[in-house]
What we know:
The protein is mainly alpha-helical. It has a domain at about 45-95. The protein is built from 15 helices and no strands.
Amino acid sequence: MICASGKPMHLAKSKRGVCMTNTRLLLLLSILAGQSSLLWGGADDDAQALQRACDNGRAMACFDVASLHWRGAVTGWVNWDKAWAAFRKGVDLDKDQALALNQKACDSGKPGACYNVGLMYENGWGVPKDEPKSVGFHQKACDGGDAAGCYGLGQVLRLGRGIPKDEAKAAWIYGKSCDGGYAPGCYKYAYMYANALGVAKDEPKAAATYRKSCERGDLGGCNTAASMYENGQGVPKDEVLAAKIYQRGCDGGHLGSCKTLAAMFASGRGVAKDAAKAALYQQKAASLERKTQ
């Protein structure tokens, strides 16, 4: 279906009008049918609707909530804790149904569902743990164009889970995930170049790619990119740019970024010296640290 704007319905950003009303209707029908609804692009209202459906016992809605969080489509930041909590809830609602629904969706050409099945077998969630079997589903997800699935495939290749360890291929697959717009894929792609894993060490490329992962919603990418610019690691030293990237990471809730940003305001490195702002970011860091305890 095409909106009045000319965009496909699931890509339209308008929150008013007939097109969004139809989206809501299709979302509701999808939930009632117990089917995956990964077409909504992460609009906050849709995420809340899916969460309510998950809370009401709709397993596939839980998997959709998980996907929204690991793609950073709810808040703009990847949130693994919420993603895994929703995924495990979907499994625990009905282990047999969780596998059957995802397997059916995977077989019908939905690569995101293939990734779900791969995660279940890789981790032994709702099924006997079978790492070799998980590899095939990660591969199918990646081949189907799911950037998160490519990330999953890169992980098993890098770590040698269920398949011979192959860092060179893992790096290439992470690059494919990053090209697909997936922030964690960019982070791992940068990591491979920063640490010469399967590729020649290339710190300038690593810094640029960490920054890309930050821009796409990976908080670790923000902190690492900022650190590289702060210290001139592979790139010209630029404390002003580093402070801006730390700011983005801190705004997203990264503890390390808030701590460093506080220190920069306290000393006037990369920013105008400002005791009040230093105290503010120290307080935010302390608050974030309490949440981790």
